[in-house]
Design brief:
Elements (H helix, E strand, L loop, with lengths): L22 E3 L5 E4 L5 E4 L31 E3 L1
Antiparallel strand pairs: 1-2, 2-3, 3-4
Length: about 80
């Protein structure tokens, strides 16, 4: 008998503040809130770490929230 996968967890990106995987999008585009530490974050087009400019597209995975040059988070606390 084949095993059925009942794993319904949606992979979520980790919060830049607390590191827990509780980051959720808000009603405003490009804004996120951690439901664990209640931190609020904004997706920016210029990397806060290295300054590289990138195009913001719809977020389909947590890789879209990382800088392509230095691989740091593109989320800025607000």
């Amino acid at each position: 008998m084949a095993e059925e996968t009942t794993h319904t967890d949606i992979p979520r990106p980790p919060c830049p503040g607390c590191g827990e995987p509780w980051l959720r999008p808000t009603q405003l585009p490009g804004r996120f809130r951690c439901v664990y530490c209640l931190g609020r974050y904004e997706l920016v087009s210029q990397c806060p770490n290295c300054g590289t400019h990138q195009t913001i597209s719809r977020m389909s995975s947590s890789e879209d929230m990382r800088c392509q040059q230095c691989h740091q988070s593109m989320l800025r606390p607000i």
